[in-house]
Amino acid sequence: LFFSQILNKMKIALQVFLWALSLFFSAQIYNSVMGPIEFNKTRDIRYSKVINRLKLIRKAQIAHKDVKGIYSNNFDSLIKFIDEGIFTLVEKRDSSYLEYDRTYRIDMLKEVIVIDTLGFVSVKDSLFKEDKEYVNMFKVPINGVDAEFVINADVIIKNSGTVNYNVPVFEVKVSKDIVLFDQNKDLLKQENETISVDGVNGPEIILGSMSNVSVNGNWPTIFDTQVK
């Protein structure tokens, strides 16, 4: 009887162990299948938020260049520009007049473009109206993240044939490690090494470039067609 009780207890213990082992392997299989799916879902949601914020920054930077001729290299000045900046509304029209030509000794027709100033409008009213989101444009818009985008701007020299000319450039970026800070580290490592036509390539989400004239981002067009 004593040995029978021992055997029963061992049998129960073995059953419990096998059940626990079965649950463990089931969880591992589930995580191996569902883990990447959940990761990709979270990734796409967060990337959309970040990219929408970068599009807002791009809008502000283009306006800054239109008015001041260069891009802003810090968010304080960019936000101040939105608050205080003014667009000049102009109209361009073709015109012509007669001018005496000393070489040919006759009046010759000269064609010119006349620029008329029509008025002025604030940058804030023109671009953002009642939307105050721009005041937080420097923040990475992910819950649980206290981080800011890295912003740079400069004027670089580009070459066109034999002519060198100065062009303004800017870049705004954030590390994927920040955006996906709480996700599976192995999947995040794979994401940082992404090279794909339909993915955000590299370890960062980037708008613009410090070496090329560009206001585009390194994200696929699917993020540009999504509704904010």
Q: Kindly state the mean pLDDT as a whole number?
A: 87
Low-confidence stretches: none
Write down how many β-strands occur, each being a DSSP E stretch of 2 or more residues. Answer: 5
**What is the gyration radius calculated from CA atoms?**
30 Å
Strand order of the largest sheet: 3-4-5
Largest sheet, strands/sense/barrel: 3 strands, antiparallel
Give me the number of helical elements.
5
The rounded distance between the terminal residues' Cα atoms is: 73 Å
Content of β-strand: 25-35%
**Given the helix and strand composition, which structural class is it?**
alpha+beta
Helix content: 40-55%
Topology order in helix (H) and strand (E) letters: HHEEHEEHHE
Q: Which of globular, elongated, flat, extended, rod-shaped describes the shape?
A: elongated
